[in-house]
Amino acid sequence: MTSFYGSLTIFYLSFLLLVIYQSLVGDAIDPTEGFISLPFNRSYYRIQKPYDLPENQRYSFINGVHKFWVLSTDKPHTPTSNTKPRTEISIHGYPYSSGVWQFEADAYVPTGTTGVSIMQIFGAEPPSATTLMTRVYDGSLTYYRDPVLVPNIYNKWFRLNVIHDVDAAKVKVYINGDLKLERDDRRGTSHYFKCGVYTQNDPSNCMESQWKNIKVLKKK
Q1: pLDDT tens figures, 36-51
Q2: Pairing assessment for the beta strands 130-137 and 140-143 based on DSSP bridges
Q3: 86, 193 in Cβ contact below 8 A?
Q4: N or C: more exposed end of the chain, with fewer CB within 10 A?
Q5: Residue 120 and residue 72: Cα distance in Å, rounded?
Q6: What's the angle, vertex CA 43, arms to CA 129 and CA 214, rounded to 5?
């Protein structure tokens, strides 16, 4: 009898631990399953930064970490551009107009950075210029200005996966393996990924983001 109740207790304790574990990890998955990681090096991207400054005054790459920063008073990336200041990786080596594509990277945003896009899918049907933007406002990661995808992202690394199914006209955003957003895309004939810092409305004086393990993937 004692052995029976002892076994029953162990069973319920194990079940309770499993429930607690699942509540902590949530429904995290690997968004890259079924995708092929493509080559990624400097030949596939360029750095966009204020046109009047050398690259090393707004970008560094040290120990595998890309660091981007820009001031709200900086010049645009070309003398003829009417856009706001930016320092971004533009992955021009992988333009796409069909299929299912994915951007994956680990991102970090320090306290104080606000009013900035840190990742975007460029290309959309006019009058839009982008199919997706993830921005930072007062420590929250947002889809454009709203909704909030994740609050309190300052000073911590997080994994960002963005999937664009062009043929289905859908975009998905995963944070640390959890699906945070699924929306219709904004059409357009050609797209590519960008990340870094791109000034938006109500910006801080200085905006910064850091990135590592950047990957571009395509559905098999």
Answers
A1: 999 999 999 999 999 9
A2: antiparallel
A3: no
A4: N
A5: 19
A6: 65
